[in-house]
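stuck on this:

***
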Amino acid sequence: MMIEIVVFLFVVFLLQTDVLWRVGVYCTLQHTLVQVAKAPDPQEAASCIVGRDKALVDIRLQLNEINTTLEAKLGKGQKLMRRIGFRALKWPFESKDMDKIIANLKRGQDSFTAALQIDQTAEILDIHSKIDLANLPHVSGAAFDSHAEENNARCLDGTRTELLLQIREWAENSQAESIFWLNGMAGTGKSTISRTVAKSFAKDGLLGASFFFKRGGGDRGKARLVFPTIANELVHNIPYLKLSVRKAIDKYPDLPNKALRDQFEHLILEPLGSIDRTTPIAIVIDALDECDGDKDVETIIAQLSRANDLRSVRVKIFITSRPELPIRLGFKNVQGKYQGLALHQIPEPVMEKDIFTFLGYELGQIRDKYNGQTPEALQLPPDWPGKDVIRTLAQMAVPLFIFAATVCRFLDDKRWSNPGDQLKKVLQYQAKTFESGFDKLDATYIPILDQLTGGRKDAQNSRILTEFRDAVGPIVLLAEPLSVSSLARLLNIPPAALYGKINSLHSVLDIPSDIDAPIRLFHLSFRDFLVDPAKRTNGFWIDETKYHNILAERCIQLMQQHLKKDICGLQAPGKL
């Protein structure tokens, strides 16, 4: 409304002064005022260029001053104007004041127009920059907050508190090493900790990038895409790195295919070294042991350690992995540049307390869910399973969080009996878990697999075990996960038959309802359990050599059946 009042009063002024040259100024000013009226509020337009914001603010301030003056000087004359007529209105500004106001607003218009042109130029440059960065390959699904990681666990509130505090103190300590290496055996909860740490860093604006390796997860296991993906995330989270990364791509167009050292230096190290920042930039790398290529793993560690030499910015890199030989060798070569912690070094009472808390929460959820779907007479007691049972399960699990998670999935599986009966089967292994030399992965997975053969005759068991190995063997050995439909075709069996063989394994396999979606392991420790040579007497043991041969034979048979000359129908010799 203020804009319309000012324009109206300028018309009055022109009529009273009879100075025709002012008409051109008025028209130009009106155009400026319309632009201002249509423009977004500077406080709301966070993406606007600073110059445009300033021009808008200056014009708005001038208009506010004019409006205030008009209201003060004309307020008393409004009643008189209504009684006597339009000519009773007295213009409140001197001619010289009007000239000054018009000149100031004209300057504001010029500044606003110039700022808009700069803004448009910046947008065009940003489009070109985005096109350049689009040529930087990256792995979708590798970030902690990707859809692929969305349903994976984070640390439950009240668990891992001391460890998470230690990691946070390291990240905020400017004198601490640039790398924190958390290592532990399979199933100890490393990835859960990584996701929790990454989420915490992101919440506080510290996270620069994250990369979660996954063996059998396509490009998520390829070393050559790690640094380009991290660079891509850094640019997304820290926009003022964009120019430096773009320059690197312009200078080295084939950089994504260069050696890992060159990638790290030009895409990450040099751009980070070009900025000044007081708060740290955190990078989270999970499951480094699942990266393809032992030598590449050592190289990645060596390159990441170079972040310790940056001075204008503090880069903190959190890494988790199993303590595999290539990784141990890699860290041995960068002594003094990392802080290490093994999960098995955490006191058992602390681990037991965390697992107890986790089990108490999850089992309570399972109880409430089951009771909500069950007649009252068949429901579990409201205090089920009781603190003593939870404590026993926690003691059985230490130090494997995967034991607790798998048991909970097992108890929650409606394909079997009720949670109470399922729990009794797990507790049958209580004594064995405390025997020296007993592998706790056995206690994790055998209760589930024993469901397949329990109560059946030897002949039936033999058939069931063979079917299990023939179906699950390829799933755990494939380099890339396949869907039910694709795997059935590879194995030359009907999809319904394959689904029937694995349908009882939802506690250990992520089996989508869509038969065209890939089947995945919930945890790599299930593969470790099945292919461990020390367990060859176990009926579920999978002979890697045998099933790799079977897969190779089936691949050749499929190619023989379907490969043909001019497979694409181009009818052009020499092309495909």
